[in-house]
Amino acid sequence: MEILAMTATSPIRPQATAMSPQDRALREVAEKLEANFLAEMLKSAGLGKTSEHFGGGAGEDQFSSFMLQEQAMQMVKAGGIGLSESIFHALKEKQNDE
Question: pLDDT tens digit string along 49-61?
Fold first, then answer.
C-alpha cells in the first residue's frame, strides 16, 4: 500500500523577495494590524480564558495575551482572513498618492 505525502499549501500572496523594501514594510505593518484584530476577536470569543478547575492562576491570566497574539500571527502567516491584503493595498495606494 502506497502512502501519499500531503503537502501544505501556502497562502496566495506575492512573494516577499519580489517586493521593494517599502512594500515589505507596508506588508509587515498590514500583517501586524490583521494579527492584532484577530487577537482581539479570539479574546472576545473566549479563547485563552483560564478554566475554573484547572487554571494556571494569575500567571496564566497575565501571559494569555501573548499566546493569543502569537496564535493570531500564525493565523495571518497561514493566510489569515484577507484583511492584511486589503490594508496593504490601501496603504500602497495612499503612499502612491503622496
Answer: 766 666 667 777 7
> What pLDDT score does 9 carry?
47
The alpha carbon torsion through 13, 18, 21, 26 (nearest 10 deg) reads: -10
Say how far apart CA 11 and CA 31 lie, in whole Å: 13
DSSP string, the chain: ---PPP-PPPPSS--GGGS-HHHHHHHHHHHHHHHHHHHHHHHHTTTTPPPTTT--HHHHHHHHHHHHHHHHHHHHHTTTTSHHHHHHHHHHHHHHH-
Query: Residues, the chain, total?
Result: 98
Q: What is the pTM of this model?
A: 0.72
Question: Which single residue is written with the C-alpha cell 484577530?
Answer: 38
Contact assessment for residue 34 and residue 84, using Cβ atoms and an 8 Å cutoff: yes
